[in-house]
Amino acid sequence: MKPWLYMGFTSAWSLPLFLASPSSPSPVHSMTDQPPAPARASSLDTETIHKLEKRINERPEKQELVERNIMKDDRGIAPKLVAARGKLERSQLEDKLDHALKTRPKPEEVVKDGILHADEVPS
């Protein structure tokens, strides 16, 4: 019988858990028993790193982007509901515009009311 039995991952980002067999001295494999992971070398030079850090620090806050209509304010709503709400708002706006265009006065009525002159009416 093997001293360590592989049991699986605790999550997508964690290391595997190992449970000890009855014959092994410690019941659970400790994370401190493993050697430290080697440091990963950066593929970017220091100047590029500094430029990126500066750009990240200058990046506007989310609230500013919402105020400038660059981002939508989700207010903690689930993404599926945000998409559904956006579709509903667009549909309502289309209906409102369609109604406004259908009830728009005819060019003859606009001339009759004195808003436009007869020569200003689009053909």
Produce a short descriptive summary.
With 123 residues, the protein is mainly α.
Rough outline: elongated
Topology order in helix (H) and strand (E) letters? EEHHHH
* Overall average pLDDT: 78
Query: Spatial order of the strands in the main sheet?
Result: 1-2
The tally of structural domains comes to: 2
Per DSSP, the total helix count is: 4
Beta fraction of the residues? Answer: 5-15%
* Residues in helix, %: 25-40%
Distance between the termini: 93 Å
3D structure, described in words:
By secondary structure, the protein is mainly α. The protein folds into 2 domains: 4-30, no CATH class; 47-110, no CATH class. It is 40% helix and 9% strand. The chain has 4 helices and 2 strands. A two-stranded antiparallel ribbon has the order 1-2. A hairpin with a 6-residue loop joins strand 1 (4-9) and strand 2 (16-20). The longest helix has 24 residues, at 79-102. It is elongated. The N and C termini lie far apart (93 Å). RPEL repeats lie at residues 50-75. Residues 23-45, 96-123 are annotated as: Disordered. Residues 1-20 form the signal peptide. Keywords: Repeat, Signal. InterPro entries: RPEL_repeat.
